[in-house]
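Hey,
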Amino acid sequence: MLNLPPLKSLWLAVIFCAFIPIIAFFAAGGISGALFVFFSSIVGFLIFIPWISKNNLWLKYFQRDLVFKLAGIGFFGGAIPTVLLIWALKYTTPSNVAILGQIEVIYSMFLATIFLKEKIKFKQVMGTILVLAGTLIILSKERFTFRWTGDLIALAIPVFYQIAHLLSKKLPKNTSHVFVASARALFSIIAIIPFFALGFFMPVFHIEWTFKIIAVLIIWGVAITAFTNILWYRAIFNMDLSKATGIVLAYPVFTSVFSSALGIERLHSYQIVGLVLAISGAYWITLIVKKEKSMIAEEGTAIH
């Protein structure tokens, strides 16, 4: 898993990502977002400790040229979006969160163009339009309903993810994807600590010590905080961020299937239409990446 080919890593991350809204759904209401981040990040970081110790990397997290970027990755990529996710799922469903998360491909396209100078092609724009259309169908159908509150919160989550991903792409070229995944866990723990000061104004210390909540924290820490992030950074360190985002956002189709199979929700026709449009756009971008990879391989063969 540590060194899988980038595209295989990315599609495996798709499967793991499909469970993110579902796992978080089982936590919503039983634990505050701040405590969820704190405990699950500790579980995830524990997975990395043998690797960190073996490679003697403890001081590297706080190197002057790395620490602020790594802190930003933990804050924007771990702490803030996870708190928002737990909050959103008090109002809306895992499928809606997953489908609306497709809007991230829009944020990614523009931010990657501005800050990473990635070239956006016409076909990628068209795929992005399909994603946006699917998102708008969900929003327009549920405006001003109870779910709409959660839907609007869900739309904000990808902004923070993309800021974190931009920071990771600005790290030195030889930075290990495993190191970045471990740093995201570590700095998520550190970043969430100041939020506990809000305990004077809101219930940030709320937790129900049930088997379900403990199991959710362990599963999230191991599967999401550790393994999914390893796969994700393996992928984006070897391809354009905007295209990697377009591919990984195919996960809502699996989220919807798993969520329905678990009896969490029943899919409605408008969700299915929005899902088909969004997934079609993401798949179109996948084909673009495959074509580019093939062209690069052919050029390399020709040179040799």
